[in-house]
User: Fold this.
Amino acid sequence: MKTSRKFCPQPHPLVSAIPAFSDNYIWLIRAPGSDWAAVVDPGDAAPVEAALERAQLRLAAILLTHHHGDHVGGVERLRTLGQPKVFGPRGEAIDGIDQRCVEGDTIVVPGLDLELSVIDVPGHTRGHIAYVAKRLGEDPRPLLFCGDTLFAAGCGRLFEGTPEQMLASLGKLMALAPDTLVYCAHEYTLSNLRFAVAVEPDSGEVGARLAEVREMRELGEATVPSTIGVELGTNPFLRSHLPSVRRAAAGLLGHDPAGNAEAFAAIRDWKNVFR
Ligand code: ZN
Ligand code: FE
Assistant:
């Protein structure tokens, strides 16, 4: 078992990462006490097939958060494996979805004894959704599968949405219980934290998280999941209402930001060019 860390909680025992491409995580969710499993955002089928084979699992369902190829590329092939039920966003053009989901929906993942509520989180893409589970199996912690909306110490690029939309979407995630496990779709944490330190150079928390994540990456460990509580304390994109982040935004803009959205937009623009 992995050592416990301050900023990286013990992962949920029934959720594991299937690494794909250079930095994607396809989340494999197992049923308590059966051989059924679901995957979230399978951008590639081959590593999923290998993982199912290795653990002798059957694919019951596929959960999709948005239409980008690195999240849906494996669906066509995986649909041929015992016909899993495919859930995805109502607001996006994705082939092969059996049940189209929108905020307010509660879905039941077949075979898994898993109930998920759907949240609309537009910003990265127009119809992006996230899935929240109150619990799974014995572990009492809630789970969030948020695709490319909220990352560990970062957030997705605004390809199809406005800063206001993304800020509202992140606000919904901020309202989740602090112990909610955050399962995002990429291992971007180290570069996100280098940026976070530039935004809040005086924050001991952000500096300590960077040190922890740097060490974990040197050991080849995954830094996802994090928790909503950890993100609230160290993710600059959840902190645009605070004086420290406002100050950084004012430095970029040359004037005090008029509100959260202007501060958030300034920080998000800076991240796009930050090296
Ligand atoms: Zn994406
Ligand atoms: Fe992605």
Observations:
- The chain has a mean pLDDT of 97.
- Residues 204-218 form the longest helix (15 residues).
- The chain has one domain: 15-273.
- The CA atoms of residues 131 and 152 lie 16 Å apart.
